[in-house]
Design brief:
188 residues; 2 domains; 7 helices; DUF3486 family protein; Phage_Mu_Gp27
């Protein structure tokens, strides 16, 4: 018989149950780093509610972490949008894959309680799927390079046959083709 799966519980501290205006003031006080957790707890007590310094500390860590995650996600999105706007022809799947992998790695390293609930095989499947996508993309890029190489070889042969009578022109054309091929073969 399998063990009973733990039900997800929402974190609910004493501060979460405070009236909105008092909780908003606590949030303001937390942002102002000149306030200590004890001073915040004392202020809440002066308003007629009992919370401990450690409750304030846990609440501050939880709300600060959530805010930081939102700020990081917003910065990553803005960076990706900026790259796409500046380079509309760029292949931005690498950037998207890197952001996704970064998020998964952070999830795995900071998940704490969630990690216990997330099946390890699911995390492994997600990482494997991203890795396969990267391998597929690299393979497509390599295939494209081979096709470019073959196309340039064919084009060079045809052009060289057409201008064999002028050796100087043949040398110049070969140089132009080599430069074009190098540009086409460069990585993103």
């Amino acid at each position: 018989m399998m063990g009973k799966e733990r039900a997800r519980t929402r974190i609910n501290s004493k501060i979460d149950s405070l009236p909105d205006e008092i909780r908003a003031k606590v949030d303001e006080m937390i942002v102002d780093t000149s306030n200590t957790y004890q001073e915040i707890a004392d202020w809440v007590k002066s308003q007629g509610y009992e919370v401990s310094k450690s409750s304030v500390g846990r609440y501050a860590m939880r709300t600060t972490a959530a805010t930081q995650r939102l700020i990081e996600a917003q910065k990553q999105t803005e960076a990706l949008v900026s790259v796409v706007k500046r380079n509309p022809d760029i292949d931005y799947t690498d950037a998207g894959l890197m952001m996704l992998m970064d998020g998964l790695v952070k999830k795995l390293t900071t998940a704490e309680e969630e990690f216990d609930r997330m099946p390890l095989d699911k995390a492994g499947r997600l990482i494997t799927a991203i890795s396969r996508t990267k391998v597929y993309k690299d393979r497509v890029k390599q295939d494209m390079k081979k096709k470019v190489e073959l196309a340039f070889q064919g084009m060079e042969s045809e052009l060289m046959a057409a201008i064999k009578s002028d050796p100087e022109l043949a040398k110049e054309l070969k140089s132009v083709l080599e430069r074009a091929k190098e540009k086409m073969m460069q990585d993103d």
